[in-house]
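$ ./design --mode recover --in tokens.txt
reading tokens...
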């Protein structure tokens, strides 16, 4: 019937032989009776497919006495208005109905799958079945079998009354992959003594687990036959809300199933062989047996617990109490999984009967937190008494710093947590980790920091030690020692400029001499004032112990100098700069306001130049650290001061190459020596248990630099003069090149932490250009860098000189 319409008193598809019927493309058929596979030995096949295609009858049998198949797909519809839809109607018959696809529907006053024969119903991919009035049945009569599967998102079977799975025969209903079955009345499993009734959520027992479907019914009751509910699914949080009653079997096979209803009327056995069964409601009259890796949990009540080998009992859904209306038994090879936290809470079994402990292991899940070491938790209570003992207790995850122990009294089992003999220092892989661990070892056991560290595994502990170390204080010392160069470079550059040295940097100088305005030479007895601005950004890479530190700095210097004893130029310099530094891997950062003052002087003996100076810098330092690891968090602030004293000197020899294709070229080989001492005052950080105290200390480093400067003057085509200059050198540092801070936790012993090292060897580079804009104005730009030994530090300086 391709798009056609027909009305008939009765329709049989396959009366005595083989018959076929297809209704498609909007065709319709109306009949009183509809029989598919009418007589014994006959075969009938009917298909209703496509939107608008429909078969309406007063009653329908698929497999009446013979073999019948009905497929409803692609939006087709089959409806019975008076009687039932019977699938496998008579003894010896077979019937199969498939309702597939969104919009495909089968509707009857009730649906019987396996009335007297064998019937199957498949609802898939959004198909819908509705039993509007009477009780639907699977496996109705003795000897019959009825199997129904509702699978796929949007697939439904709606029952306006009750649903029986196994009335007198064998019935099975599988709800999977998001399918849904509902019943306005009661769902009954195995009604008569001879019947078998099975409800599968997900897959059948023994089959592979699949995604769960949903049963919407207030009550599921077991009858007098052999009834079972199998939870064999892949969900991690499947909630079964129906109340269960009667005598049958609940099998938890796979997935996590949460029973939320009051099923105290259920008196059968509950078996947990896989996955997890959480009883948040009541199974107060059912003994639950766990074995083979299956876990029982929840905050409700059960009638008894039997933990066989491989079985796991884990009360709560995190920390909670599982009540037992009866006895508890743990066998050898079983596991009692107990979660504890730092607030003194733990999982617990509370039994009204006895607890028989024939071995089994207590596996402890330790929640992050600051534990009170030496604390005790009640993990099992039995009013009827404790018989036997567990084999022992161990942490579920490796916590080498904790020791676990069990104690007993006549009615209780206690779990004790104390500090083990494993030191924190022994966990360190780096010197800083070991030192910090040693500092923590010196603290009293009752402190929150020790309690939190004790609950960590080795990897977590090492990360915690790195955060707790206060490494930023040591690394900042190295940065301040390195940054001392900016002041001495400014003083040296000024002295070279005063004596017209090779590679001298243009800088704003105001001087007064006789005659018209001009740059004051060293020979004048007039007073000169100069200034410089600078900015730099750098990175000192970690060395496997200390982590990488990044720094940026900006500031200025101003100075004044004059002629002394005819051949010497002496002066003073002051300035201000601000540096910011960050150790990202330690969640630490800081800043320093730097106030500079110094004296410098130099002279020239022919081509030999001598330059020297003495300077002091005060540092006002602020630091911030964040410490966070499982069970502990703290924010630390530090404010303290430091001072850098340095003395420096340099010898250079000027070599004039004269006029060359590169201009008027000159060179200056030089040797530079500087000693820098940083003195840091003591401080105490503000914060919690991770706050550090330091008594201060000194860091002394000597720098030697050997190098060559060069400069050349060029005249551009427009008559402007351009000076190109450069410097290349090798710098070596010795002394306290690895800065160290000695700190302590409150109440603990001091320990020393190393910062990222000062570069022992590195290349130093300067490249610059000066352009005479007018007779009295010069614009200069300089790039400087330090490279090597894990250090990259780059500087840009801009200079503008005006001559008066």
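writing sequence...
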């Amino acid at each position: 019937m391709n798009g056609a319409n027909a009305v008939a008193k009765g329709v049989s598809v396959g009366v005595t032989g083989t018959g076929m019927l297809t209704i498609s493309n909007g065709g319709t058929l109306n009949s009183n009776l509809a029989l598919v596979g009418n007589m014994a030995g006959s075969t009938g096949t009917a298909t209703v497919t496509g939107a608008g295609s429909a078969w309406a009858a007063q009653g329908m049998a698929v497999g009446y006495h013979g073999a019948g198949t009905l497929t409803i797909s692609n939006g087709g519809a089959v409806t019975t208005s008076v009687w039932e839809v019977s699938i496998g109607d008579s003894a010896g018959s077979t019937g199969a109905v498939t309702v597939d696809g969104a919009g495909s529907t089968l509707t009857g006053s009730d649906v019987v799958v396996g009335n007297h024969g064998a019937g199957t119903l498949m609802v898939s991919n959004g198909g819908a079945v509705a039993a509007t009035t009477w009780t639907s049945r699977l496996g109705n009569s003795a000897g019959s079998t009825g199997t129904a599967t509702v699978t796929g998102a949007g697939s439904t079977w709606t029952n306006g009354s009750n649903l029986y799975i196994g009335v007198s025969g064998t019935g099975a209903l599988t709800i999977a992959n998001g399918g849904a079955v509902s019943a306005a009345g009661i769902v009954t499993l195995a009604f008569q003594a001879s019947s078998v009734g099975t409800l599968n959520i997900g897959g059948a027992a023994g089959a592979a687990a699949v995604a769960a479907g949903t049963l919407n019914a207030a009550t599921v009751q077991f009858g007098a036959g052999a009834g079972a509910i199998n939870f064999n699914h892949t969900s991690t949080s499947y909630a079964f809300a129906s109340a269960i009653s009667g005598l049958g079997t609940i099998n938890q096979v796979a997935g996590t199933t949460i029973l939320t209803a009051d099923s105290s009327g259920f008196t059968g056995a509950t078996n947990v062989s896989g996955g997890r069964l959480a009883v948040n409601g009541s199974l107060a009259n059912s003994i639950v047996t766990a074995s083979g890796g299956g876990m029982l949990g929840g905050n409700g009540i059960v009638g008894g617990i039997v933990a066989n080998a491989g079985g796991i009992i884990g009360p709560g859904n995190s920390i909670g109490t599982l009540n037992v209306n009866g006895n508890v038994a743990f066998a050898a090879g079983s596991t009692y999984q107990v979660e504890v936290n730092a607030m003194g809470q733990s999982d617990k079994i509370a039994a009204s009967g006895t607890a028989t402990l024939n071995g089994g292991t207590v596996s402890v899940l330790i929640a992050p937190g600051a534990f009170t070491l030496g604390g005790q938790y009640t993990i099992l209570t039995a009013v009827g008494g404790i018989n036997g003992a567990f084999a022992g207790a161990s942490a579920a995850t490796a916590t080498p710093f904790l020791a676990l122990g069990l104690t007993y009294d006549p009615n209780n089992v206690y779990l004790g947590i104390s500090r083990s003999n494993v030191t924190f220092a022994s966990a360190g892989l780096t010197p800083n980790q070991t030192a910090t661990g040693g500092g923590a070892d010196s603290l009293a056991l009752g402190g929150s920091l020790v309690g939190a560290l004790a609950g960590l595994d080795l990897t977590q502990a090492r990360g915690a030690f790195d955060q707790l170390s206060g490494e930023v204080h040591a690394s900042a010392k190295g940065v301040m020692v390195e940054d001392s160069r900016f002041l001495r470079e400014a003083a040296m550059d000024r002295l070279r400029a005063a004596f017209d040295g090779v590679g001298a940097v243009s800088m704003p100088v105001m001087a007064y001499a006789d005659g018209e305005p001009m740059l004051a030479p060293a020979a004048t007895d007039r007073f000169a004032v100069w200034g410089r601005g600078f900015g730099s950004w750098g990175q000192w890479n970690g060395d496997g112990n200390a982590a990488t530190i990044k720094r940026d700095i900006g500031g200025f210097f101003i100075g004044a100098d004059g002629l002394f004893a005819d051949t010497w130029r002496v002066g003073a310099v002051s300035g201000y700069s601000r540096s910011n530094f960050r150790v990202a891997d330690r969640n630490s950062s800081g800043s320093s306001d730097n106030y500079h003052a110094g004296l410098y002087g130099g002279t020239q003996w022919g081509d030999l130049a001598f330059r020297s100076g003495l300077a002091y810098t005060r540092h006002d330092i602020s630091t911030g650290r964040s410490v966070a690891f499982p069970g502990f968090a703290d924010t630390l602030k530090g404010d303290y001061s430091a001072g850098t004293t340095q003395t420096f000197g340099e010898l250079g020899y000027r070599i004039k190459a004269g006029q060359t294709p590169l201009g008027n070229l000159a060179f200056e080989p030089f040797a530079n020596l500087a000693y820098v001492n940083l003195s840091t005052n003591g401080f105490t950080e503000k914060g919690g248990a991770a706050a550090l105290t330091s008594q201060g200390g000194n860091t002394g480093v000597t720098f030697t630099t050997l190098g060559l400067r060069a400069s050349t003057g060029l005249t551009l085509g427009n008559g402007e003069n351009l000076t190109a200059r450069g410097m290349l050198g090798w710098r070596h540092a010795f002394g306290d090149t690895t800065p160290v801070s000695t700190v302590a936790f409150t109440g603990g012993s001091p320990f020393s932490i190393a910062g990222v090292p000062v570069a022992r060897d590195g290349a130093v580079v300067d490249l610059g250009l000066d352009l005479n804009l007018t007779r009295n104005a010069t614009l200069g730009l300089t790039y400087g860098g330090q490279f090597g030994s894990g250090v990259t530090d780059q500087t840009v300086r801009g200079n503008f000189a005006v001559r008066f």
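exit 0
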